[in-house]
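dumping this here before i forget
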Amino acid sequence: MPEFSENEGSIFTQQGSLFPAVNERELPQVQPVLWERLARSEFRQQFHLNAQDRSYLATKGFEAVLEHGADFIGKRLAPAHPAKDGRQTPWQGHPVFVAQHATGTCCRSCLEKWHGFVKGLPLNGVQQAYVLAVIAAWLRQEQHRPAPKPGQNTKYVRTFGRKNKKLAEKA
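structure:
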């Protein structure tokens, strides 16, 4: 689990009324051991940005996407008992959502398992910055991966559970 000092200030500053501004240079470093652990998870390794996600990231810009991520973290992960915990992060539709599933930052159970943040306690500013740093680092790694070829289906299909197995067989 990462070490956090309660005295450290938040990297988030208020920007307008919608999203906090994020300074990527002030995000904490992500330890290499996390990437090693995630690499051993077959489930987590199946997530990659598709062409739409890459286009969104290029169009909106990395900083804007991180601002969205900070907002998602603050509203969907930071509360001690988030609404719909375990189901609050969609599987697709925004690069941050894909990154959250790839990095185990999608719900409080995954945050506890992968990052050591105890469920039932709200995330402080430093912890939220760490979660955003993990997402940002994963997005940067994905930007360096080769882009999917036109027409290549990179949409993630869950293949567990009876209902989803039938869907996967049809795909």
